[in-house]
């Protein structure tokens, strides 16, 4: 307790309306008196060190305490108490999934962090059907703190799997559903937020609410892509499809961006296409283009992104086709046909077959390698942009032609998606065109470096990209957005700001939740 008192003066004060206002530390003491199934860890506990960190490794805000909930009621009780006792105290609450945010989004400076992974309840992860029998639509009900890798393994036991993924599966359902969850399946199925039947949410008032398209729909759509602003996702029903056993992975290089983009857009526009379509950029990776095919290991995306591009800029189209072993022949014919329609550099085509799990969990292979070299826990100044199709050529010319001189700091993904297949009712903000590109600059900085791989240099580069997008009025939106002022957030949401604000007022009027985004500092 002394630690806490040292951290925060324990003076009782009065708010404007003369009601008792307790300082944050006192509220934490009160939370400890609640009949919780889980536990509260105070400042100084090892978990606190983790709660002040994230994958970005740039911002570190220590909380006062960490709640390890065992039940949904733990979360509800705590939020209710904070909202009743601490409305003016400034104590904020951040749900923390797997902490793979980039700029402190899951942190709460001198606040309370809720460790959602302690609510995982794996024994309750269940595959069911929408009508209760076996003829409805299959879904899995998961805890908001469940990791996608666990969801995959559980659903595969039933021959099923979620339809839409992220490239990396060691993220929680609540964490990705608060953003979008975009990967190479999103052109067809939409992002993960478009593949959810129902949510259970604890609002900023501590109320536990079940919501779906037909029940409390405003909260349902608000929470999906809502950056944790309206409630904490404690359960989610994720839509499933039959899972394939195998995946054919194909990569091919292009030297001309227009041809590359034309082929990508063609592939996402047709019905019988690949199941996964992505791509990445290679700028000025000096060496031998010829070795591309022989030494290229498709199971290792990290290695792929380090490929030589002979001093020029190359674009790699990445495709995958799902299949079961007994469908091999038909799959190969279909792939052959699709490839015959494309205009890649013929000598650069590379095909391989891997299991479905290996394919989906591919980034974990890179993680293990980077961890072994001590290169995983470095600063990650990532920048993710959604670029309208009509402006992608301008973007390519300036960013890959002038601003960036190489891709040695990490992979740069680039692939188009069909907005027409996405549900526009969620809180996610996207460009206003039927097709837009996800461009992800997944940079790693070298700690204590002052060179081009320094954090400062990469952040400057990101700034130049953002400035170019703004000056050229490209209509680009940030994905996993990061802003510091309310004005910037308003500009990000544009015409949708009013709805976002109204939902905050309805579900978290004291602005207790998800302070790390810096959207709402004070009660509304
Ligand atoms: P956290 O970082 O813990 O939380 C993220 C935000 O969600 C915070 O604001 C937090 O308060 C809030 N939150 C967490 N849990 C809940 C909950 N249960 N209810 C309400 N709010 C909650 N994204 C993609 O779309 N596609 C990708 O392919 C992709 N690949 C990635 C690869 C790596 C290696 C990394 C580090 C990130 C990647 N991301 C990708 C980004 C990722 O989706 C987000 O960073 C996501 O938020 C991380 O999930 P998390 O569980 O770590 O969330």
Automatic annotation (TrEMBL):
- Give the GO biological process terms: cytokinin metabolic process
Q: Which PROSITE patterns match?
A: FAD_PCMH (PS51387), OX2_COVAL_FAD (PS00862)
One matching Pfam family is Cytokin-bind
Chemical reaction(s) catalysed: N(6)-dimethylallyladenine + A + H2O = 3-methyl-2-butenal + adenine + AH2
Keyword annotations for this protein, in alphabetical order, are: FAD, Flavoprotein, Oxidoreductase, Signal
Names of the cofactor(s): FAD
Q: Is the Oxidoreductase keyword given for this protein?
A: yes
Q: What class of enzyme is it?
A: oxidoreductase
The GO terms describing molecular function are: cytokinin dehydrogenase activity; FAD binding
Please list the residue ranges annotated as the FAD-binding PCMH-type domain.
59-243
Q: Which EC number(s) does the record attach to this protein?
A: 1.5.99.12
Question: Which family is annotated?
Answer: Belongs to the oxygen-dependent FAD-linked oxidoreductase family.
What protein am I looking at?
cytokinin dehydrogenase
Mind giving the lineage of the organism this protein is from? Answer: Eukaryota, Viridiplantae, Streptophyta, Embryophyta, Tracheophyta
